[in-house]
Amino acid sequence: MSEATHRYPDLHQHLDELARRGRLQVIDRAIDKDAELHPLVRWQFVGGMAEAERKAFLFTNIVNAQGRRYKFPVVVGALAANREIYSVGMGTTVDKIQEKWDQAIANPIPPRLVSRAEAVCQEVIHEGLALQGEGNGLDMLPIPISTPGFDSAPTLTATNVITCDPVTGVQNMGTYRCALKAPDRLVVRMATRVGGAGGYLHYQAWQAAGHKTMPCAIVLGCPPFVAFMGPQKLPIGMDELDVAGGLAGEPIEVVMAHSVALRVPAQAEIVIEGLVDLEMLEPEAPFGESHGHVALEEFNLPMKITAITHRKLPVIPSYLSQVAPSESSVIKRVAYEPLFFAHLKTSLGIRGVKRVSLHEPLTGLLRFTIITFERNTPRTEIWRALYGAAFFKGDCGKICLAVNDDIDPDNADALFWAMSYRMNPVDDVRTLDHRGQGHGPKREAEGEEDSTLLMDATMKGDMPPLALPTREYMERARVLWDEMGLPALRPQPPWFGYSLGDWLPQWDAAAKRAATGHYLENGRISLAEQRNDVKAESKFRPA
Q1: If you count Cβ atoms within 10 Å of the first and of the last residue's Cβ in the chain, which end, N or C, has fewer?
Q2: DSSP states along 426-474
Q3: Phi and psi (nearest 5°) for 378?
């Protein structure tokens, strides 16, 4: 094996960096992949832990429900258990993630083809009889059950599924679930919804060209720059490997797959190669899906395995998906939000937009979009943004809400507050019909269409301050709290009061006197301002 020429990290090096930062939890005790592994990691998402406390979990001692041991470790959460872990994989800080995506999409770098001798993903090759029988082929891999109690099979989740257009040869790389069926067979779920998967468009193109099978390569454990491309939403026809090169700042090294005519990342952990059947379908699922409901059994695409290649000591990644927040929702959110923001700010040229947030807990990102605006943004711009966000993606934007920049989009109570006091439903709400259902549980009784709700909950003028002590007094009290050893605080905005425009300088002075024990002076001032008129508009306000 020749010395690597690339500078970007592979999955092994990424895990080393997470360990150095204290972001990797290594579990050496025996863990049942079928009943214990995913539920164990799930607790850090539903157990009341803050996002910043989440870690990647590396399991080194894997067994199945029958006690069979596996020689390969499994890692969960290594790409996006939280934003910090995601930023490590992106080679930047959390606040620079959007900038890095923008630069990569604008400046893609095509991959570089290397020889098989240079590709660690082909150090070991299984084909022919090595794919047959229990314990061989797919059955040698410790693939977890994602949602024990509902799922019907171990399922590949952290995938980069590579297909190509039969005419142009342009490849697509998407993240699709793949249910194991036999040592040499699995079933791939490529989304067929409107605005869905590029892989499914390739499936249709191969069918239209008269073929009976479509070559496919399922990659597990790509270098992070490549792994991030699977869940990302890029224009159809843009090769994700080119954008991955833009992220890395150099060409991604690829190699021709062993048994199919596709280019795969040379530094991948495992590559599962095969042929997708274009004539037959096979039942797949139930499986706990990323929209937070269990996807029920339906017919999907069977794939016959022709080879499995891997490095000598691979690590198998698995995504924690299902109900958000989860690893898959974090990885999608960090990727999607910059795209929405760039669409509104740059493509549509909308003024006053400061941020786009996709609501994560339970709703799973695709249903609820929050657009943050500067105060006093013209209403015409707000509504342009609401319509633009609703129609940016066919499967996103069922509810679009506009708020000002004092509202924390991750605080549902703050969103409800804005809707309650800054929105008049008669004037500030619109509904749109003829929308696709998008990614979600099947609702056959409702037909194939959905609708969209647009809401403007921005301030339409100045308002009185938020009625909490101002920042200086809350910070002073925080020092006292800590000095007295009271329980640890986790402040949630808003935790101090601030002006919303309807406020006068003399009231600042009066508040200062009151807080320093001189309220009697305020009484003397107000006595001098007594008046006997009772005009409604001026009764309680200075002239």
Answers
A1: C
A2: HHHEEEEEEEE--SS---GGG-SEEEEEEEE-S-SS-BPPPSS-BHHHH
A3: -55, 140
Distance between CA atoms of residues 399 and 407, nearest Å: 17
Q: Tell which residue, 158, 272, 275, 154, has the closest CA to residue 222.
A: 158
Q: Which of 220, 216, 312 is nearest to 265 (CA)?
A: 220
Q: What angle do CA 179, 180, 185 make, to 5 degrees?
A: 115
Q: Cis (ω within 30 of 0) for the bond into 494?
A: yes
Own/partner pairs, 3-9, CB within 8 angstroms, 24+ separation: 4/118, 4/120, 4/253, 4/267, 5/253, 6/248, 6/250, 6/252, 6/253, 6/267, 7/248, 7/250, 8/91, 8/223, 8/225, 8/248, 8/249, 8/250, 8/252, 9/91, 9/223, 9/224
Whole-number Å distance between alpha carbons of 390 and 399: 8
CA dihedral of 383, 388, 389, 393, whole degrees rounded to 10: 160
User: Quick check: 172 and 205 in contact, CB under 8 A?
Assistant: no
Spans of the chain, pLDDT less than 50: 1-2, 194-195, 444-445, 536
Q: Which helix (H) or strand (E) holds 475?
A: helix 471-483
Distance separating alpha carbons of residues 363 and 136, to the nearest angstrom = 39
- Count Cβ atoms within 10 A of the Cβ of residue 257 and give its class: 0-12 exposed, 13-18 middle, 19 or more buried: buried
The number of residues making up the chain comes to 543
Angle at CA of residue 80, ends 118 and 142, nearest 5°? 60
Three-state secondary-structure class, residue 515:
helix
Please tell me the distance from the alpha carbon of residue 479 to that of residue 482, in angstroms, as a whole number. 5
Position 326 scores a pLDDT of 83
Q: What are 87-107's pLDDT values in tens digits?
A: 999 999 998 988 898 899 889
Question: 177 and 287 in contact (C-beta within 8 Å)?
Answer: yes
- Give me the domains of the chain, ranges plus CATH numbers: 11-318 (2.30.110.10), 348-456 (3.40.1670.10), 471-538 (no CATH)
Q: What is the pLDDT of residues 411-447, one digit of tens each?
A: 999 999 999 999 999 999 999 988 776 666 665 445 5
- Separation between Cα atoms, residue 133 and residue 104, nearest integer Å: 44
Q: What angle do CA 289, 338, 174 make, to 5 degrees?
A: 40
Residue 338: predicted pLDDT: 83
What is the distance between the alpha carbons of residues 373 and 351, in angstroms, rounded to a whole number? 9
Q: What is the maximum span of the chain, computed from C-alpha positions, in angstroms?
A: 100
Q: What is the rounded distance in angstroms from the CA atom of residue 153 to the CA atom of residue 373?
A: 45
Q: Distance (Å, rounded) from C-alpha 9 to C-alpha 224?
A: 7
Containing H/E element for 79?
none
340-362 as b/e: b if 16+ CB within 10 A: bbbbbbeebebebbebbbbbbbe
With 0-12 CB in 10 A as exposed, 13-18 as middle and 19+ as buried, what is 22?
exposed
Q: How far apart are CA 267 and CA 253, in angstroms?
A: 7
- Its sign, for the CA torsion 11, 17, 18, 24, is positive
